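Quick one: structure for this chain?
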Amino acid sequence: MGYKSPYPPSGESSRGEAWIIARTRDIRDSGRPFCIDEIMANANITQGNEWQNSSTFATNRSVSTSGSQSKDPSVIDYINYIFLPTTVSIGVAGNLITIVIMKSRFFSLKPSSYLLICLALSDIVLLLTQPFNKAFFIKIVGQDVRALHDVTCKIYFIIRRSSKMTSSWFVVGLCIERFIAVWFPLKAKLVVSKRALLIGILAVYLIIFGFTGAWSYASKVVSGKCQPDAYDRNNAAARERFGAMLRAGSSLYSIIPMVILLTFTPLIIFKLVHHNQKRLFMTGSNSNKVKDDGRVTAMLIGVVIAYIIFVLPITVLHNAAYELQISAFASNNEAFNLYKEISQLLEQLNYSLNFFLYVMTSYRFRSILWEFITCGHHRLQKSSLRTTNKSKSSSSTRKSNP
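Got it. Here's what it folds into:
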């Protein structure tokens, strides 16, 4: 009489029941004593393992899915949403207006207008490249548009670094021009000529573009992102080479300009105060020239102070990233990334505020700006009024003398 299993056929059972049927047949065929408790215990263990594996898979899938989703925007992201477009739009507009005013009749006669125009151009270029360097902007666009190719990545950082460095050296040029005008007023027109300034501007562009072009060797696309510091950090020679370029770049961008500015600016202030006291003692009042020199120097001091406060943090950022052997723009360190965002916010301010410093410290700049805003309406009104008065006076003279 054959053995009849109490369980349904495997085709009509679950996986656990099918295992029990197969195990029961094995025990029957082997002739070993049949123990239903043993079979049920093994079935429970097997089913428990299957359920555990299924649960683990579901959990891992859930974690993976949640991890792959983008994080909610942070507070600094919300600040950037407002701060970046505001500073870029205001900064670009202000620098464009500065260029127009520097081309006016009054400022175009001054050699320093060339430096101010070049400074405004550098600031415009830097502000326009700033969004592409922000993580939240890359998230919004969906990809790093700089990372289309290694060549586009290199071109981006050549332009960005060059605009930053030339901006610094044009501020230095303004400071040196003021120093010569204040300390050597009789020789200023001979030394600070338009030709000399144009030669100096050309030399700055050639040196800085040459250096940033050589430094671009480390600008590469890594994992779909354009990084300015893509070098082998485990290779001592590669690390030393990049460190040398970083130190030279930091010196050209901020360290050397800061040393020059902090040296010459106090000397300019000292000489102006000395001249002012001397004129007050001799004449009892300030001349218009002293007032104009004071306004121009006040504008320079404002630019210098803003430069030091806003530029120093970004210099510290890049050098700290090198010492910590991390990428400045691909780090997972939250504290470092927060400092990076704050440094970039300050840097944006540096290239957006010059226009407002000119407005606050230069009467001539304000008056020409007002004419620019009103399209010379008031000037035309005054001119027509003077013409009318002259015609009336001439007609009255003719009547009195028939």
